[in-house]
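To: structure desk
From: M.T.
Subject: fold request, one chain
Message: Could you run this one when you get a chance? Sequence is below, nothing fancy, just the single chain.
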Amino acid sequence: MLLSHNININKHQLNIYHSLLSSSGKITNAITQEDALHSIYNLVGPLKDGYYINYDHLETLNDKKYYVIQYYEVVLDNTETGEGHTVTYDWFYVDKRTGEIYRLDIIKNVLIKIIDKNKK
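Reply: Done. Structure tokens follow.
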């Protein structure tokens, strides 16, 4: 049973869990792109000016589908021309079925599960 484990979840995650349950009590594929973005916004907190969270694509790894979300900053290099660049701080993967959040370790090329201990 999903909720029988000692885990920390916030109200939004609980609402997602309930939305996944069908009338038979089985989990369905119901996490939306908007739910995934909302979960990442809750995780990183208020964004400073120039910082963004953006849905990038849907990716399948080991038969699981993930919403891939980029957390980045836009840096203005030249105020006269408006030229600049982006700095990516994290790539987040949100399991489309469960809503679980993972961070991509780009050095090891592995997903690391995020346990948000600050949200209840």
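Reply (cont.): Residues 1-14, 16-24 have pLDDT under 50 and may be disordered. Let me know if you need anything else for the meeting.
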